Amino acid sequence: MYFNSQGKAEVTYDAIVVGSGISGGWAAKELSQKGLKTLVLERGRRVRHGEYPTAGMDPWDYESGAGERVPQAEIDQHYAKQDRTGFAIKQSNKQWFVKDDEHPYTEVKRFDWIRGYHEGGRSLTWGRQSYRLSDLDFEANARDGIAVDWPIRYADLKPWYDYVETFAGVSGQAEGLAHLPDGNFLPPMEMNCVEKELKKGVAANFGGRLVTIGRTAHLTQPNPAIHGSRGKCQFRNRCVRGCPYGAYFSSNASTIPAAEASGNMTMRPHSVVHSIIFDKETGKAAGVRVIDGQTGEQHEFFARIVFLCASALGSTHILLNSQSEEHPDGLGNGSGQLGRNLMDHHFKVGANGVYDGFHDRYYKGRRPNGFYIPRFRNLGPDSNRKDFLRGYGYQGSASRDNWMRGVKEMEMTMGADFKDALVLPGAWRMGMTGFGECLPYEDNRVYLNQDVKDIHGLPTLTIDAEFKENEKAMRKDMAQSAAEMMEASGFKDVEMYDDVSFPGLGIHEMGTARMGRSAKTSVLNKWNQVWEAPNVFVTDGAAMTSAACQNPSLTYMALTARAADYAVKELNKMNL
Amino acid sequence: MKRREILRYTAYFTGYAVTAPLTSAILSGCKAEPAAPGYAPVFWSEEAFKNVSALVDVMLPATQTPGAKELGVPQFVDLVLQTYTEDKNQQKIRTGLTTWTGEMASQQGKPYHELDPGEQLRLLNELDAAARAQDEKLAGPELSADEKEALAPWWLLLKDLVIGGYFSTQKMGTEVLAYDPVPGVYEGCIPLAPGQANWSL
After folding, report:
1. Closest residue to A402, CB basis, from B65, B180, B198
2. CB within 8 Å of chain B, chain A residues 434-473
3. Distance between the two ends of chain A, CA-based, in angstroms?
4. What are the sequence ranges of the domains in chain A?
């Protein structure tokens, strides 16, 4: 492939950031605020904060007359895989998800790869749940003799969790748990009456278990000095469409405007990174090769450091495609670990039930959050299990049934009274799902597929991953424990469920370029530097050495800010 | 000004809370469009559409609030089944409805839609009871969500569309149910006023 270079000065920056999602946004902010001329390469279109066309639309506002539904023919043609989520492909938010026919991948086993190719990436559509990892997680691989040890511990990341939480704004309740450390929280959201009953029931019947409100990246009390013009959460629960108030953390509302304000950032949309240019004289990256997504033109950009923040599989794809004489199997693949140890959280297993009480109570507002039950398995001798390693947390919520209970749940014949009854709120119902840790397995992996190309002519990925025996054993406990807690707390009609979870659908792809202590067994060192090209940093989900069971985005933010700080210090010392 | 333009305006230009009462007052000016007369069905045959319209009308009739038929729910169901439904469910619902109304017609000696409304409702409630009993057998952890969906009785799929369609009309959503597009707060445990309707969103 021939790449056309412009005058080298015009295409040379201090830093290149690939991707503008959760991690890329942070890299852009940190590097540009520290004075580096920073080029952000975003493969999709620009989305400026506020450009959320469906944010205020009600179900009856859609011209089709069919609400948020998308025609089945359009789903079949463009969104067959993205639609596996059940929530992504609606008129209100399909603009934030890729067309599968333009960006194909190959599944050896079912893998739901859910993506958004536009400025802000999946920071616009993320679940916003924000939890710290702890030494229970960072020490897990070493303790269990699995995969490789994390090269960092909680103490390494703690100041960076503090730092990113403050800027992002995370609401939550401090609980003093060693294995789920508290953060710098904004005021917590409220639990409703029935959720509080569960909290009481669990506290009374299960020593060591706790129900708390979800820790979520929403401004419940904005501080203009920190959060700028971002507003307070309005409890509309239309977050996935983009929030015109900027109340939840996204790159678009938060880090990208901060980077722009530094005067040092250039955002280049429609810039699909082909590969990293490796300079064998220096043993470092010289820059990146880019295909313009609109014109097909090929460009080269140069910089002293490169931050790969293209998502776990996106960053790994670029490294695999960065083939040179020195690195025939991809840059950073000397260990053979690049593309391996793919992880995701498994979920869609738990219980639901009805609470017979609080008939005279209701709520106001659509809280974009639920309760959280932190991990309580395998914390130590009192909670260790023989049937599986690691653990899980639960997320759930309670609400009153609405008119849809008329389909199945109501013992009433149809007609006038039925119709009028459906106008009123029904019983309180609660549901919860576990989110379980998946172990890193070498044979859960991705590799380049030269036979299938995307719309830019790039090779695509083949994904070969599955949940295995440890995850399956854990799921049995996830269903049973959920039901036990609800029954002990006075819920009726408690039903366990396991709706089967395929990797990918948690949208927490992790691993494939893991951090480690040795170049022989890992792709990245403790500062997220590629062992084989130390001026290349990978700070997204690819870096994860193990998955823990917490939602991971906050950890990517902290890793990114920490790596950016280190990179700039090393640059200043002329070490990079 | 259209409601969504109002919301966009306030949201984008203030960046902060629009107080809920103000918003509701502005928004209540927008009314539902009446259903077009002389509708030609696209999914159903003319005969089947008459049957669907009849069952929708007895299932959710006009009371002190409008009925589902006058809010255009039969047309909504026809549109969604034609354009927004997977093949397998299209077939299941088409075959189910046609078979059932065929049986009712031979039993009663005239088409379902020509029966007395009381009789239409009685037959529909029998169908409903049988479908729910069948569906109850699917409950429990033995079957996955996909399997449950595949085995779900056709009537409950259609019933879901009718109820969902009715309560997401603009009329119901803004005038009968409690409409609060920008709540501004979450209060998790407040007294339920007598007659308080469900939140519409």
Report:
1. B198
2. none
3. 28
4. 8-129+249-344+442-466+506-572, 170-236+346-436+468-498
Locus of tokens 């229970």: A136
Q: How far is CA B54 from the centre of its chain?
A: 14
CA A273, CA B162: separation in Å to the nearest integer? 48
| Shortest distance, CA B93 to any CA of chain A (angstroms) | 15
Q: How confident is the model over B6-58, as pLDDT tens digits?
A: 333 333 332 223 333 333 333 333 333 444 568 999 999 999 999 999 999 99
Q: Is A510 helix (H, G, I), strand (E, B) or coil?
A: strand
**Closest-CA distance of chain A to residue B18, Å:** 9
Q: Where are the domains of chain B?
A: 3-176
How does residue A2 score in pLDDT terms, banded at 50, 70 and 90?
A: low
Residue pLDDT, tens place only, A535-573 = 999 999 999 999 999 999 999 999 999 999 999 999 999
Average pLDDT value for chain A: 97
Q: What is the 3-state secondary structure (H, E, C) of A245-283?
A: CCCECCHHHHHHHHHHHCCCEEEECCEEEEEEEEECCCC
User: Model's pTM, two decimal places?
Assistant: 0.93
SS (H, E, C) A57-95: CCHHHCCCCCCCCCCHHHHHHHCCCHHHHCCCCCCCCHH
* B180/A56 Cβ within 8 A: no
Tell me if B4 and A365 make a contact (CB, 8 A cut-off): no
- Give percent above pLDDT 90 in chain A: 97
Inter-chain CB pairs, A–B, below 8 Å: 206
ipTM exceeding 0.85, yes/no: yes
A8-129+249-344+442-466+506-572 classified as CATH 3.50.50.60: yes
